Please model this.
Amino acid sequence: MIFNTYISSENDLKLVLCAPGLKEVLIAPEELSKDGKTPLAYAEALASAALDAGLKTVLVWDLVMTESEFKESLSKLASLKLKAFDAIRVSDLGAARYVCDNFSQVALQLAPDSADHNYDTLYSYSRAFADRLERLSLSIELPEDKLCEYIKRLPLDCEILAAGPLKIFYTPRPLLHAGSRRQIKATASAADMSNRPLPVIQTAHGTHLYLDRDYFILHKLAKLTEAGLYAARIDLRPYSPARHSAHGIDRLLNAYHNNSDLRTLWPSKTGSPFFKTNKTTAQFKRLKPRILETRDQRCLATVLEYNKDKHTVITALKDFNLSDARIAIHPDGRMREITLSGCRDIEGRPLSNCSEGQLVVVNSLYALTPGTLITTASSCT
Model:
């Protein structure tokens, strides 16, 4: 397994050369990458210097593009001598096809971000781009077991983010300042998460929202490496000075090879959501009303209306004797004993029995909210 990282300056290159195991550099021009830091005019010279130092060079062209933006990007690509690059990394499938058809001298790397989570889609890329596609960057939203499975099954090299910012939203639209093309930084938070402001960055190519913890599995790569992982990416751009991208990469990878505590060297709080198991649906059971589990043959009626100090209206789910009603089960699952009294139909006539679908008015039952079930026993499970 090799490591790669982004570089945007000669100083980055010097640090990379002191980082054991780092064999490849990613050069993301400002004009061609969503969050690039390298001026296009400097990208070629930086790539040539990296090649001369024995590193593999990858040009990052990962914009989300309209047709006109695609054509504009091609004119900028034309200004580069691609012989300085070993590969081009794209996320747009149209850009991938264009690279295959027009740039035969460079390999193709595909980074579909977090869009593709199933094997069939990922495998289809290897078929569509044949021998031109040399590597896939897999989604960080895949758990470890799936990553291992895909790495073993896919007929090409795979890469995963090992450490870096966790992007949770991106749009090509400028959400912070519509008229600006310079970088703008801000924070945002939801009303129920005001204690966890999330970083927001607007660049010339859109707006990025990040989690307040970075993705970090640099200390958990053993199984992935055993499965055949080819490359682990480290992204230090948010923690590097302006115009630089790899600040601290030498210390981090030296610590990795010396089995040191890596997380203490990372400049931000970290986590590894999704990695051990994908828990995105784990809360669904809690969100699902527990009352849905109680609808069986012992359920007699549901509360339709509650009017404090006046009455409660129930809807019969079956024919039953009103004296059989003993338990109320609230929508949140709480239960309590009840007794129905003053039972009458909607015209005020007294009732002792009711039929399915009939509306029954009873004396007010304290705090029985609409949707509460009326049952015959303390458990309807």
Summary: The chain has three domains: 2-166+213-271, 167-211, 289-375. The first helix runs from residue 10 to 17.
